[in-house]
Design a protein that fits this description.
Helices cover about 80% and strands about 0% of the residues. The protein is mainly alpha-helical. The mean pLDDT is about 75.
């Protein structure tokens, strides 16, 4: 790992990478209060007190624990446990909006823990002398990041996606891994280097795929048309051949309209 990449990881802030869920708590509270107004099965104060305990822990994580990674990780675990207990306790009484909200909080905690694990493994690898152990730690860090990219990318902020792409690209471009993968005999080090590069490429692919979905086909076609300043439909389509065939077909439909 280059020194610049290590500094990016060390200086990255978890709250910059993962979207917060603070606004969820007010919505959950309002939903509970409204639902319990007409129910005698459970005192609303009890549910709101349990929700408040989760919210206070969330505030601690967001405000107080950034400099203490170990405590932050433990607090995130505790939020997951409390959220699960909340769902179990109130699932028969709480409205769907409240359950969905608390599940989002639980998921946020899980993803945040994965980000911490990825960072810890990657930084630990940077100071590991044993090559096999070092590659194993790098791979574990990237796999945690890949899991987020594959399943929870909507929780990434723009800054988070940029950070993940920068880290993945650094591993792909790192000449030492490239040399390991190409020149070393087939051993643990070669296998580890290839796995790392493959995981990094998969991260980039997932993020690019996610960002590409945000494009409007119509806007893209119009942008290409304006850039080339031509009425030739085929010329426009040739500039977009990097897109998958299904995307090309969509562009053709728009051009016909």
């Amino acid at each position: 790992m280059t020194l610049a990449t290590k500094q990016i990881i060390e200086n990255s802030n978890d709250t910059e990478a993962i979207k917060g869920v603070g606004e969820q708590f007010a919505a959950i509270q309002q939903s509970l209060e409204k639902a319990f107004q007409s129910q005698d099965a459970l005192a609303p104060e009890e549910a709101l007190t349990d929700l408040l305990s989760i919210y206070n822990l969330y505030l601690y994580i967001e405000i107080e624990s950034e400099t203490n990674r170990v405590q932050r990780f433990k607090s995130l675990e505790e939020i997951e446990l409390r959220a699960e207990a909340f769902k179990t306790k109130y699932k028969d009484f709480a409205p769907k909006e409240a359950v969905d909200g608390i599940e989002n909080v639980q998921l946020w905690a899980k993803i945040s823990r994965k980000m911490i694990s990825s960072k810890v493994c990657t930084l630990a690898a940077s100071v590991e002398d044993n090559e096999v152990k070092q590659l194993g730690l790098f791979y574990t860090g990237l796999i945690n990041l890949l899991d987020i990219a594959e399943n929870y990318l909507s929780f990434f902020t723009q800054r988070g996606r940029e950070l993940a792409k920068a880290i993945a690209q650094a591993f792909i471009s790192y000449k030492t891994f490239e040399d390991y993968a190409k020149k070393r005999p087939a051993d643990e080090i070669t296998s580890g280097a290839i796995s790392i590069r493959n995981a990094a490429k998969a991260i980039l692919w997932e993020i690019d795929r996610h960002d590409r979905k945000k494009f409007s086909y119509k806007s893209l076609y119009e942008a290409a048309n304006n850039a080339l300043k031509t009425d030739d439909k085929e010329d426009l389509l040739k500039t977009l051949r990097s897109w998958r065939e299904e995307d090309i077909n969509e562009l053709k439909k728009l051009s016909d309209n």
